[in-house]
Amino acid sequence: MVKIDPGRLMADLKRLRGFGATGPGVVRLALSPVDLASREWLVERMTAAGLDARIDGVGTVFGRSRNSGPALLIGSHTDTQPTGGWLDGALGVMYGIEIARALAENDATRHLAVDVASWIDEEGTFSSLLGSRSFIGDPVDESIRGATNRQGERLEDVLKAAGLAGRPRAHFEAGRQVAYLEPHIEQGGRLEAVGKSIGVVTTIVGLRDVRVRFTGQRNHAGTTPMAIRRDAGAALVAFITRMDDAFRQIADADTVWTVGRIDLDPGAMSVVPGAADMYLQFRDANVARLGAMEQKLVEMVRDFNAQHAVSVELQALDEPIDPVGMDAALAEHIARAAEAVAPGQWLRMPSGAAHDAQLIARCMPACMMFVPSIGGVSHDFVEDTAEEHIVLGCQVAATAAASILLKASADE
User: Fold this and answer.
1) Statement: residue 318 has pLDDT above 90
2) For the whole model, what pTM was predicted?
């Protein structure tokens, strides 16, 4: 069996944590100065692992094995949420580097090819899943021209300032890259709740991102009677209550929706808001249910506009992401590896979070595996995973990677 080096793995993970470390968490927004510095360091680590590494034209760090194919691509992302954890995405990238090293150090596997990627902007600072979308050949140039972050910086300008605009972009190599593996923290509490150490992912949920805009009339908060107000903020709050009730009629136990951001204009204590935006995301593994939720929103907006002085409109944000099943044959490699390394300590489960894997699955078979998140917490500074689970997960992933590649080589 291929053996990873736990000390080397943990040292690299902790060094990456240092880029943007904030208390127990990390602030490393895509293409920020600290993120760009971390990407230069990743190039160094991938190069030291024997890969030909570079930062591409959108900011993805890509390390290509010098071995001939078939190649297994292992990756995730290293950008974070504004209040991010140290393992979300980073775990999978550092697993990839460690697995490439471990396979190269074993006589039986040193000929196998592992490519490693740190996809840019999975978290959507500018444009969600930008790196993986670019890799599979989606037309991202329009997204790049139109994308800005919350500070108003234009993605196109940021790429130029970083010296990345015009660089070649990493792309899928048909005939060489035969499978994609994305190891990740669970970001939920299912594994911890049942006392398991490894999750073999069956499906990744789909999601929709929507802005709901309310337009009323700004006015004085002290002199405007309640009866004649066109308060966009109050309308937004009332809409959310109705929406929650409506979605509960459609949802099953795994359906989720979140109002993650609300903006009021002008946002002053003494002014009745004249406009209000809510940013809504909903997720489900059933594409028909996602469609039903979309339709319900349309109906609610129509009814609300017919009944209220405040007007409402919907706007889709980013492209819709549909649910994607993971490749069953690859999942079996992970399951067998988990049983060999941690007998009885694994289960099959869906992913409630979106991942680059669901886009990569459009061009090659893809799979994912999880390790537990302490307390089920992620997208927060306190996100963490026990070191024993980090190490165990990497050993399972390395065992599965060797199995996938040996099978692919035998089939050639």
Assistant:
1) no
2) 0.87
